[in-house]
Amino acid sequence: MTAAVPFGTRLADAMDAQGPLCVGIDPHPGLVAAWGLPDGVTGLREFALRTLEAVGPYAAAVKPQAAFYERWGSAGFAVLEEVIAASRAAGVLCIVDAKRGDIGSTMNGYADAFLGKESPLAGDCVTLSPFLGYGSLAPAIAEARATGRGVLVLALTSNPEGAEVQHARTATGASVAATIAAHAAADNEPDLAAGARLGTVGLVTGATIGAAATEVGADLAAVRGPLLAPGIGEQGGRPEDLRATFGDAVGAVLASASRSVLRAGPDAGALREAAKRLAGDLAAATGRG
Questions:
Q1: In angstroms, what CA-CA distances link 68 with 47, 120, 145, 232, 262?
Q2: What sign does the dihedral 48-53-54-60 (CA atoms) show?
Q3: What is the pTM of this model?
């Protein structure tokens, strides 16, 4: 990682070059078995590194989901560290999907673990949960900015349960999601003023949310940070729907797919072709093609 170049700029450059595809390196037990690999650390490592090698040239970023590594304890964490290091060596941006969120010294600890300069668990970016209050994320945002990394904050997720929190109204009358988006926009102002292409703080906004952003008053275009859009493929999200869903913010969208690409394995050529085809479809749908 080149800390002198902000994450938002590096991501925007990668999306221009490869298309706005993020491949989730998610070793679901069922997928590992379908690849003919054992459900254990050996299979985990083979699955993850084979995926990275195959899809890396066609993805703007990869996104290992920490839970699938954590289930194997310290040995699984070691594989996650190896995936992060291998991504860096290959020149592929790595988003660690850990969804951490806490307060005070605990949040400082998470910031050190997933964003710290010397941490082996620090990729280029980490996902965060703001539902203990957006202000609780301040240590992570500060650490990300200091190390040239980024954060992606949950805002409008595609799971139906999310609406009961994210669509709810705060004491000001604004929705929770709109409030998170407004805070992210404010936090990105220094990065953009310094010339970054996208800000340090992005949002997680599902590819399948439809008109939800408009309905809850979340101004995604004003964020001017990366918008990670999970749900392409297996969850029903389609490249051709992204422009309608994200409107003027579509240029900041990094669309994420995992199972729809990973099911092409274990053959490396099939994985490459699946990633290449989807990256092209996403580039065309978002105006990068």
A1: 11, 17, 28, 20, 14
A2: positive
A3: 0.96
Domains of the chain: 7-284 (3.20.20.70)
- Average pLDDT of span 209-235: 95
> Does 99 participate in catalysis according to the annotation?
yes
Torsion of CA 123, 247, 211, 98, to 10 degrees: 0
Count CB neighbours of 172 within 10 A: 8
The residues with which 228 forms a beta bridge, in sequence order, are 204, 254
Kindly name the residue from 63, 99, 117, 276 that is annotated as catalytic. Answer: 99
Query: What's the pLDDT at 289?
Result: 63
Distance between CA atoms of residues 178 and 77, nearest Å: 34
β-sheet bridge partners, residue 96 = 126
pLDDT score recorded for residue 288: 83
